[in-house]
Specification:
This protein is mainly β and 343 residues long. It contains four helices and 14 strands. The two termini are 39 Å apart. The N terminus is likely disordered.
Length: 343
């Protein structure tokens, strides 16, 4: 499933990738239950960006729709309110962050009061826990207020605040629709939600998806325009993200940053061990030897010729460089062609 996106830019300069949101999808086991967790991010361009609002407007109503009708699950409470510290406090939960619920503050430069749960959003006790939508307020359908804050008075708005101490993606899956890969740095990312579903609610063979429709406002100087110098930039976006399941979450799938030197469809990082990478150089021995580095010293040299001669006229597990099934002059010719080169 590819992301479905739309964008209307409201102002310049751009300080966030407003065309879409991003998903960090992973599985969490809690006792007898397994949850599929999706951390949803927007991507800013610098660490000084702050998030003023992630919401809907009168003509662009915010909605978070679990497309298969599966209900979002909460860990220990019924609130969409995030923790007061960061997202690392619970391994699975469902909560929303900046601008997605009423946020108390006495204005720019004032004292941070608290975060208050937004009654306009459904929770797991409501009649529709599978859809998060905005209710009409004085500002129009789907509008959820946020403060034009600065980091000094509202740490919750700072890019990276909810990312956790490691600041690295938790996913082990290469899900193209989500735009976040295993081991990826989350620098300049801001978590706008954590969504969790129970895998027991997922029908066999089904890949659950959530479609997120938002209007985002980001400030590019670490302070809002009302405190002097900040520039509000607003975007509208719609993105469909995938939850991780055993169907689509293959931790050994070949991702954009992986190598697959033997072209077997499994990332080399999953095949490396003390037996397959005896010289511990991060490369599979079989691939290095196929490239004529038979003694694994990193250079095609006399040592490789010597190693080949010990296998002469045999049909060994490795060393057949020309693919004729035996160690012969053709294999020696392959080494001589690359002699002196780095492996």
């Amino acid at each position: 499933i590819q992301p479905v996106t739309s964008l209307v830019a409201q102002a310049v300069p751009a300080v966030v990738e407003g065309t879409r949101v991003y998903g960090d999808a992973y599985l969490v086991t809690d006792g007898a239950k397994t949850y599929s967790v999706l951390d949803v991010y927007i991507r800013a361009t610098q660490a000084t960006d702050i998030v003023a609002s992630v919401c809907g407007v009168s003509t662009y109503k915010a909605s978070w729709v679990q497309n298969q009708g599966i209900c979002f699950r909460h860990a220990g409470n019924s609130s969409w309110n995030p923790t007061y510290t960061d997202a690392a406090g619970a391994s699975w939960d469902s909560f929303l962050t900046m601008g997605l619920r009423t946020q108390s503050n006495d204005g720019d430069g004032g004292t941070l009061i608290a975060l208050t749960a937004d009654p306009g959003f459904s929770n797991f006790n409501s009649v529709n826990p599978c859809r998060i939508t905005g209710a009409s307020t004085g500002n129009g359908p789907g509008w959820y207020p946020s403060v034009g804050a600065i980091a000094a008075t509202n740490p919750y708005c700072v890019v990276g605040f909810y990312n956790g101490a490691s600041n690295v993606a938790k996913t082990t899956c290469n899900i193209a629709a989500n735009g976040i890969n295993p081991g990826q740095s989350l620098d300049n990312h801001f978590m706008i939600a954590r969504l969790s579903i129970d895998l027991a609610d997922v029908a066999p063979g089904v890949t659950p998806t959530v479609t997120i429709k938002l209007c985002m406002t980001v400030l590019n100087t670490g302070a809002s325009s009302s405190t002097g110098g900040g520039t509000n930039v607003a975007y509208r976006s719609t993105t469909t993200l995938e939850f991780a399941t055993p169907n689509n979450c293959n931790p050994c799938a070949v991702g954009p940053t992986d190598t697959d030197c033997n072209s077997n469809g499994t990332a080399d990082r999953c095949e490396r061990n003390a037996t397959t990478d005896t010289d511990n150089d991060g490369k599979l021995d079989s691939c290095e030897r196929r490239g004529c580095d038979l003694d694994l010293n990193g250079v095609i040299d006399a040592g490789d010729i010597g190693a080949l001669l010990t296998l002469w006229d045999q049909t060994p597990a490795w060393g057949d460089l020309d693919g004729d099934g035996r160690i012969t002059g053709g294999d020696l010719a392959e080494i001589l062609l690359k002699f002196g080169q780095s492996a």
